[in-house]
Amino acid sequence: MAVTVGVLTGIVIVLYDHALELSSELFFEPVYNAQHYYVIFIPAIGGLLVGIISHRFMKKQRYSIDNVIESATLYGGKMQSRTVFLEVLSSVISLGSGASAGKEAPVVLAGAGIGSAFAQMLKMRGNRLKILLGCGASGGIAAAFNAPLAGVVFSVEVILGELEAATLVPIVISAVFATLVSNVIFGVRPIQISYYELISPVHEAILYLVLGLFAGLTAVVLMRSLYKCRDFFNTLNIHPITKPAVGGLFVGLIGYFYPQIFGVGYDTISQVLENDITFNLLLVLLVLKIIAFSLSLGSGGSGGSFVPALFIGSMLGGAYGFIVNGLFPGVTSEPGAYALAGMGAVFTGISRAPLTAILVLFELTRNYGMVLPIMLACVLSNLVSSALHPESIFTESLRRRGFIIRKGKEVDIMESLKVVDAMKREVQTISVNKKVEALIALMQSSRHAGFPVMDQEGRLWGIVTLKDIRDKVKQGELDKTISEIATSNLIIAYPDESLNTVLQRLATKDIGRLPVVSREDSRKILGIITRSDIVKLYDKTIVERMNYRSENGN
């Protein structure tokens, strides 16, 4: 079965590549015989067609790599073949018309869809269906990039999140046969570049670590830019069909001046690796590619983030290579070497898949001399990006829908939800110098049983509850001050803590509320969280997940 899935995936990926070439010719060839400014409108036309397909035939459901992860983790590997086909078709139109995205998401979708459909056709259930989905995903990467090892590791690292012998063997078999079909039969070849190696291993190792730092920061910018753009288009008050066209129009405007940002961009990557692009152009393309990519996918276009990350990484690394060559002449490699490492580092930063990045670059270029610096840059990029943005570009979309997935398994709902999602930001407080009489009046008017206590400077001093009144105030002692009965030894919560952690803290101390404070200043109150706040958010999340799964037919 793994052989069958691999062969079918290899054939489909080859057909997809030919369809992509034909689509690009259909969209762009007429422009060569017309006014040059027509190129501005081509991505908009493609975006309009994608908008029609997605709105009329796919409704709210769209597929990308995050949905493959979701299917593998939550739905046992089940995918809807019709939606997969329409998404792959949309990507052919989108990329062919110049959308600034990559082809890895469609090829992973195509492969995973083949594996899932084949398994469902044979009435498979449970882990076997999930494994065949993984076989298709690995075959898609292997065939598209002539990288069987990278395909296997990508499927394990990103899609399935686990490594077991029963899973690994069929995935390897599928990747091998998909590569045989695309490479041996159809002649797909890796990128051809000059051979690079370390000139000064000790000195350059430090320079590649610094590159990894910049790559991690760039990856965070790329991810946040994409989701900011997606949020903007989600709130844009225009018809959904036109949103990809609007994004495409802006991409066309950028591409009119810098056509390198159109489409996948392999030719431009090859130029950077061969040191054929100037320093200024590298910086310009670095910024513009981030913008064009965010517009393309954020507006509803179809495509992936794998190759755009390689593109952006090559620009970053190439520009960085120019700088270190100028600062340390004679002891540093050519800019193309740093461009190669930058490709892997930025991809690692957005995907959290360092092994995949290392292997795909090695298999694409067959350049083993750069494996060590690539490893250094990738590892540091992964650390920096993870620290600044916990989710990858794939799992961020799932997090926004309420699903936290780690190592191929869904994290408990209470562990996935954060204090900041449940806390009340508008907090009623009482001054430390107020009398108990004022506290009782506040409790009666607000119907709350506890309040944070603030000092004269407006900083958190303690907390006072109805229990404190019962235990510490005798009849006739209403003139006592809050400072005499309140608890100053605070138990607090932070906004980034999980609800599970806070709920355990409430239960252990047998209290009903916690002030939420800043990690930088424990006396700066940000909100308050109660048991009822936690229960309400939990119930709401459960209902939303049930509705989401019902709408998506799972």
Helix count equals 24
In what range is the share of β-strand residues? 5-15%
| Structural class by sheet pairing and helices | mainly alpha
Provide the gyration radius in Å: 27 Å
Compute the average pLDDT.
Answer: 86
Q: Sheet bearing the most strands, described?
A: 3 strands, mixed
Inertia-based shape: globular
Number of strands: 7
Helical content stands at: 55-70%
Strand order of the largest sheet: 3-4-5
Q: Uncertain regions: pLDDT < 50 for 5+ in a row?
A: none
Q: Distance between the terminal alpha carbons, to the nearest Å?
A: 24 Å
Helix and strand topology:
Elements: H1 2-28, H2 42-58, H3 65-74, H4 81-96, H5 104-121, H6 127-145, H7 148-160, H8 165-185, H9 201-235, H10 243-257, H11 266-273, H12 279-298, H13 306-327, H14 335-351, H15 354-365, H16 371-388, H17 395-400, E1 405-406, E2 409-410, H18 413-416, H19 419-422, E3 430-431, H20 436-446, E4 450-454, E5 460-465, H21 466-472, H22 482-485, H23 499-509, E6 513-517, E7 525-530, H24 531-551
Parallel strand pairs: 3-4
Antiparallel strand pairs: 1-2, 4-5, 6-7
Helix pairs in contact: 1-4, 1-5, 1-6, 1-8, 2-4, 2-10, 4-5, 5-6, 6-7, 6-8, 7-8, 7-15, 9-12, 9-13, 9-14, 9-16, 10-12, 11-13, 12-13, 13-14, 14-15, 14-16, 15-16
